Amino acid sequence: MASKYTYSFFRVSKTNEVESSAQKYRDLRLKALKTSPDSFSSTYEIESAFTDAEWIDRLTLPDRELFICAATPVTDDPSSTDGIEWIGQVTLRGPSSKADFELPVEAGQPPQRSDEEEERWQMLSLFTLSEYRGHGLGSKLCQEAINYLRSYQSVPRQVQVRLIVKAGNDVTVELYRRLGFIHAGKSTLVEALIANGDEHLVPKDLTSTKYSDRKGLIMISRISRS
After folding, report:
1. Is the pTM of this model over 0.85?
2. How far apart are CA 159 and CA 161, in angstroms?
3. CB-based burial of residue 183 (10 Å sphere; 0-12 exposed, 13-18 middle, 19+ buried)?
4. Concatenated DSSP letters of 116-170
């Protein structure tokens, strides 16, 4: 059966049509937080209170690059833009210095190369709305982000992409393995929050074992620029 949609993948501009992009991103993000709360460290209650200016600020952060999958209904008019919906997202955070990217020795992460030898990015917030799953869109979104890292500049020649997956999320782990990521250690929840730029979500009371247990699977991929 022919698909009712065509899909496109792109990096969101921080300068063109920012207000419109921020509204679309807000709609996608809030729907994702509401329908799949366990997929994110933040909550619908927190982000639904953001102002329009705050959504624009999030979209234009200098250390973030947002990539989107958009679904376009198949119609008789190929030039029509009616009904286009943002339905998937993934974010890159970086580039990070060697010092900022380091984790405690207990995490088991391989030693970092010098800043001159390697650029470092954290991949986070991969999500596709449930009604659009089963078409490999998450994998294509990640590939769009990786292609950007390969091409947006030429040096340094090596790029490390890291992500942290919740324990037991076997489907997502397999997706990343198909993209070339390998197991490279385990992180605590606090380390994962900090790596993803969510330091504000780290609670003051860290007595719960969920913050100290190493249950987050660290995965890395090293890519080369031509």
Report:
1. yes
2. 7
3. middle
4. TTEEEEEEEEEEE-GGG-SSSHHHHHHHHHHHHHHHS---SSEEEEEEEE-TT-H
Residue 176 amino acid letter: Y
Q: Which two tokens stand for residue 189?
A: 């929840």
117 — pLDDT class (breaks 50, 70, 90): very high
**Domain spans of the chain?**
5-224
Give me the residue label for tokens 């250690």: 185
CB 215 within 8 Å of CB 166: yes
Centre a 10 Å sphere on the Cβ of residue 141 and count the other Cβ atoms it contains.
22
Q: Which of 56, 49, 51 is nearest to 19 (CA)?
A: 56
The matching CATH number, chosen from 3.30.460.10, 3.40.50.300, 3.40.630.30, 1.10.3720.10, for 5-224 is 3.40.630.30
> Hey, what are 15's tokens?
């300068």
Q: What is the pLDDT of residues 71-85, one digit of tens each?
A: 999 875 655 556 899
